[in-house]
From TrEMBL:
This is CreA family protein. GO terms for cellular component: cytosol. Keywords: Signal. It comes from the Bacteria. The lineage of its organism: Bacteria, Pseudomonadati, Pseudomonadota, Betaproteobacteria, Burkholderiales. Residues 1-25 form the signal peptide.
Amino acid sequence: MTLRPRILLHAACGLGLALAASAHAEVVGDVDTAFKLIGPDHKIVVEAYDDPKVSGVTCYVSRAKTGGIKGAVGLAEDKAEASIACRQVGPVSVTQPLPKREEVYSERLSILFKRLRVVRMVDPKRNTLVYLTYSDLLIDGSPKNSITAVPIDRGTPIPLK
């Protein structure tokens, strides 16, 4: 196998792994931001992610989604901008001790290299879960980020690893 097909094979495998590892989001809704004659319009999408280790907490992430022909076939690179709001949506229970910092969601924004990430941090002094969203690239990330916090009742201490 020559070098070029080998690189393409590795890229396809990496893409498959990235798709398999991405978080499962529930789309809450979207709004169009720019009309595209061919393909879907550019839009802002709002998605809900339930924290996999903290039942009763849901994070809502809004982000830009590129339309057009590239967006329709999955080749577009979405902007590295997102906003997050996490809320208590039911009784909070932690299924297992949490690390002080842990990535809880990751979703691709381009075919290979850009990812949107959500990291949960525990502030034990204030018994609060802090969620940070940002994007990164293979070489250079983006300083654009958004943060939110979910205070937990003092009667339910957050167990740490």
